[in-house]
Write a structure and sequence with these properties.
alpha/beta; 29% helix; 306 residues; 8 helices; 7-stranded parallel sheet
Length: 306
């Protein structure tokens, strides 16, 4: 059973890339399975995965710290239940992938598993503004990229050619021996990533993962949003909000929408899921009172919030 670990900061396009990996595996006649981690109490991304795929979720905690032991257990269970050829582990946007790698290399798993890739999906638009981010967020992103076997430089269509060249130059200077693949919508195949066996860097002894300043809020809605009001709300969000995602009903359509917002870029896609309306908001040092007030101001209701 091969294992591919997919890491990267919030909103980089990990789930989109994951879906391309799944399709690539299926086209090669392989049976894939997935482990997904959301550090919040509600999952959005798991609803975007083919429901015929074996899927395990690790929610309400970070896969690299308090939920780390769950990785080993889930991999063992997924091997017994599904006998997959390849398992894709999508880390949460705040996880350190080396801790996940450590969990994958426990003696109980090594007889039947082989880690073939530790891939970091990088939002090149966000990376181009790396030095403008808070220090702990910069350190987290840099740590997520350390020791990866390859990079997926995603969302290349959202920046200019000159900006993209600067990003590539910065990354290759920091990681001269790490291959990268350039894409705009996570369009990557398994052939684009290295398939050599990955081993843990003996110099890496673990350490405290600094992401305690990142938090989330969840809002539930009993009736529809006016679409322009929702867009106005997003535009009014402070810069320390990095990710908004969820399912909403807008008053101009009877069909529910999947909404994804990251780095000032909004995607709205029709969804036919039968699911309640909710939004997950993730950011750095969130002022939850201010955030709740803004939701109520733009939506004109007392939204239920976690």
């Amino acid at each position: 059973m091969d294992i591919v670990i997919i890491s990267g900061f919030l909103g980089g396009g990990k789930t989109t890339t994951l879906n391309h990996f799944i399709n690539s595996a299926k086209s090669q006649g392989q049976t894939p399975a997935v482990i997904m981690n959301e550090f919040g109490s509600r999952s959005v991304d798991s609803h975007l995965i083919d429901d015929s795929i074996g899927l395990c979720e690790i929610i309400n905690g970070c896969i690299c710290c308090e939920m780390k032991s769950n990785v080993t257990d889930q991999l063992h269970d997924i091997y017994i239940d599904y006998q997959p050829d390849v398992v894709f582990i999508e880390c949460s946007g705040i996880a350190h992938p080396l801790e996940v790698l450590d969990a994958c290399l426990t003696p109980i798993l090594t007889p039947f598993s082989n880690v073939v890739s530790l891939t970091s999906v990088i939002d090149v638009q966000l990376y181009s503004k790396l030095e403008q981010l808070p220090d702990d967020i910069q350190h987290l992103i840099i740590a997520q990229m350390s020791h990866c076997s390859n990079f997926v430089l995603n969302k290349s269509d959202l920046i200019t050619s000159d900006q993209l060249l600067e990003v590539i130059e910065s990354i290759t200077k920091r990681h001269p021996n790490t291959p990268y693949f350039l894409t705009s919508h996570g369009k990557v195949t398994l052939d684009n990533i290295k398939s050599n066996k990955i081993t843990k860097d003996e110099q890496f002894q673990g350490g405290k993962i600094i992401h305690s300043t990142i938090g989330h809020s969840i809002f539930y809605f009993s009736h529809s949003w006016h679409k322009q009001s929702f867009i106005n709300w997003l535009q009014d969000l402070p810069d320390n909000i990095y990710r908004v995602k969820g399912f909403l009903t807008f008053d101009d359509s009877a069909v529910k929408s999947l909404v994804q917002y990251a780095n000032h870029h909004l995607d709205v896609v029709s969804s036919h899921l039968s699911i309640e309306d909710y939004l997950v908001v993730i950011g750095h040092n969130i002022d939850k009172v201010q955030l709740t007030d803004s939701v109520q101001q733009y939506h004109n209701l007392n939204a239920n919030q976690e």
